[in-house]
Every structure is written in structure tokens, then in C-alpha cells.
Amino acid sequence: MAKPAVLVLTGYGINCDEETRHAFERAGAVARIVHINDIIASPSMLSEFQMVAFPGGFSYGDDTGSGKALANRIKNNLMDEFRAFIGRDTLMIGICNGFQVMANLGIVPGLGEPIGNVQVSLERNTTARYQCRWVDLAVVPGNPSVFLRGVDRLHVPVAHGEGNFYAPPEVLAAIEEKRLVALRYARSDGSPANGEFPFNPNGSMNDIAAVSDPSGRILGMMPHPERNILFTQRDDWTYLREKARRAGERVPEESEGLALFRNAVSYFG
């Protein structure tokens, strides 16, 4: 069976494209990094892919707000093509800056049609500081995300200055009612962060770290799963290695973030 093809978007200021490509390829996909200018020049190329990934970084320097300039490039040049892409049986993921882009495009949470109606935003962290730290995440039961099938918890890093999830009260209520919250920030024991720093690193409403669309085929998340696909990428890997050795257990090679990419690949299997 042919491997699914992933378009990993790149452009000015995006800096997680290589890691995202590697994660998808390790999971069994064929991933190709494509510059936004090349897509604008040849928009029909989107029909060649089964998945699109918006990686992390600081697209266009976040000079007009995180993800806004890239979102405007897409709105002004490619919105019809992206609507057509989403209309097929495809997958899409936005990580960190990619989540910000998708929120600014109105792709997530996708409560209404047509796609393009902005409903949520990622605001400045309540600490007023860039946060680069490891966080624990709890998968929300009942959420339909393809990427999170069989996953209960995650331990992955965040790295952002504007990750504070905000939605107007009526939108927040709809997101919760329709179970579109995919991940919440949590404590190391899995209990809710309850908005407390550093467990919730940015002040997000309801500890929201990720949301999906109603179909489960689109996921936007602030934390970086592509930065924890190998055991030795973890912040606590030396401790866990020693603990495993003393217990006579095998030291793993891979880590939990890879599950999201494997789930995406297996969707087409």
C-alpha cells in the first residue's frame, strides 16, 4: 500500500519544518517540505497530498501577531484550495505557530460553515513571558481527534509567547458541549491544572491546549509532539533510563509524541 503523502508547510520564520517532516516519515509517511510561495504559484499541488501540517516557528516574525501574516497570505491566495483540501478525506495538523495560523484562518474549531470564520484566538501568555518548558497533557474523553486515538496522556514541551487560548463565552460553551477540546494542560499525576502556572503555562481558558474540528480530522495544538518522538528527547530521560535499568526493564527508543503521527499515517492504512 502506498504511503500517505504529507505537505509540511514552510516559509519565512517557520523553524520546525524539518522536525515535523522527520516525525511523519518515522511514522511511515512520505513528507515533503514546501514553501508557501511555491504553493501559491502552483495551488493544484494540494491535490497530491493526503495531509497538511502547519509547523511551529514564528512565521513572518509574528510582527502583526502570531500566525496572522501567514494566515492572510493563505486567505488572499489559497483559501478556496484549502477548503477543497479539507472537503476531501484528508488530515490537517497545526502545531504551535501552526495552531495560531489555523485559528486565524477559522479552520479550527470549525463550528460553522464556511471555514474562514475566526472563532478563537491564541493571546499573549498571562506571565507576559515566552514559555519554554515541558508540560503534561490529558486527552479529553469523547474528543473525535484521529491524531489522539488510543492516547490518554502526553508529556511534551511548549515554546511560545502567545499560547493563551481564548474564545468568547458562547463559542467556549459550544466547544465544550461538542467535545472539541482535545487536550488540556494537567499536573504530572494527570489531575487538572486548574489554570495554575506552570502546569498551565499560558493561562488558557479551561486549561485548553488543543482543539479539533467536529470531524476529528483537523487538530490544532500549542505543545510540540514532534519534539518528543525519541526517548532521549525527554527532559527526564536519564532518570527514566536508570529507573528502567534497575528494574531490569527495556530502555525504549521511541517516545510518546510519535503516537500522534502514527495515528495519522494509520488513518490511511
Structure report:
Helix 3 (68-77) packs across helix 5. A hairpin with a 5-residue loop joins strand 10 and strand 11 (218-221). The strands form 2 sheets. Strands 2-1-3-4-11-10-9-6-7 form a 9-stranded mixed β-sheet. The protein has 269 residues and is an alpha/beta fold. Helices cover 27% and strands 22% of the residues.
Beta-strand percentage range = 15-25%
H/E series, N to C?
EHEHEHHEHEEEEHEEEHH
The oligomeric state of the chains shown is: single chain
For the largest sheet, list the strands in their spatial order. Answer: 2-1-3-4-11-10-9-6-7
Which segments are poorly predicted (pLDDT under 50) over 5 or more consecutive residues? none
The total strand number stands at 11
Distance between the termini: 8 Å
The helix count comes to 8
What's the average pLDDT?
97
Structural class: alpha/beta
Largest sheet: 9 strands, mixed
- Please estimate the helix content: 25-40%
- How much is the radius of gyration in Å? 18 Å
Global outline: globular
Briefly, what is this?
The protein is 27% helix and 22% strand.
SSE topology sketch:
Blueprint: E1 5-10, H1 17-26, E2 30-35, H2 36-41, E3 51-54, H3 68-77, H4 79-87, E4 91-95, H5 97-105, E5 121-123, E6 131-139, E7 153-160, E8 164-166, H6 169-177, E9 181-186, E10 208-212, E11 218-221, H7 237-246, H8 258-267
Parallel strand pairs: 1-2, 1-3, 3-4, 4-11
Antiparallel strand pairs: 5-8, 6-7, 6-9, 9-10, 10-11
Helix pairs in contact: 3-5
